[in-house]
Design a protein that fits this description.
Length: 225
């Protein structure tokens, strides 16, 4: 999957998340139906506290050569559980000659775990044409029980890797990419980005199929020097 990385490029957080999650698979489609590629997914574990296990959500996206502005509804169904999500507020991005559409906040009912297994995703355009694909979600459910104090060591065991995202006060992304040595301390971040306000550490496993997001932290020079 492609990843954005820039020290000074001003991009939105939403665009960043899109770019992290997409993978492109070309298929031929009728001109009258949504011309989409194979959907892709990530299971996201979101930590909001050092003392609590993470919450979870599923992100599903697709890349397209047709106009994603015409897509009106997205339906995602877990074929093993019959959980079904209908998305009318589709999130969209255009970059690198392609367009993407999807959702990054699919949560199962009653705080259940994200179902593994097969899913069907269907896109409906403004002409009531539709295109469906089936894909399989696989991930290690032990992530639900990993506390943040053990996260880095567990990710390393799974041959995962670390990235960092840095924001200013308006939540504009100042930097996203592999965490360099200069960003191992808050002072290091501040030395490069004086306008930095917060940052998050993000851990990736299973080729990006699993993303673990540490709590957002303030950039306060001197607090970890």
């Amino acid at each position: 999957m492609p990843y954005m990385q820039s020290h000074h490029q001003k991009i939105s957080c939403l665009s960043l998340v899109f770019s992290v999650l997409f993978c492109f698979f070309v298929v031929s489609c009728s001109q009258n139906t949504p011309e989409i590629f194979q959907p892709d997914y990530s299971v996201i574990f979101d930590y909001t506290s050092e003392d609590l296990p993470p919450s979870s959500r599923l992100a599903v996206y697709m890349a397209s050569v047709s106009d994603v502005k015409r897509y009106e509804t997205l339906k995602i169904k877990s074929l093993d559980t019959d959980y079904t999500w209908y998305i009318s507020d589709i999130q969209r991005l255009a970059a690198d000659g392609l367009q993407w559409a999807g959702c990054n906040n699919l949560v199962p009912p009653d705080n259940e775990k994200i179902p593994a297994g097969y899913y069907e995703v269907t896109y409906y355009n403004a002409d009531e044409k539709e295109t469906s694909f089936t894909f399989k979600v696989t991930y290690d459910e032990e992530f639900y029980d990993i506390m943040i104090s053990d996260l880095s060591s567990e990710i390393i065991k799974k041959n995962g890797y670390e990235k960092i995202i840095i924001y200013d006060k308006e939540k504009t992304v100042l930097f996203f990419g592999p965490r360099p040595d200069e960003f191992r301390t808050v002072r290091g971040i501040w030395n490069v980005f004086r306008e930095a306000d917060t940052y998050r550490i993000m851990w990736y496993a299973n080729n990006g199929r699993v993303i673990c997001m540490e709590p957002e932290r303030k950039v306060v020079p001197g607090e970890d020097d």
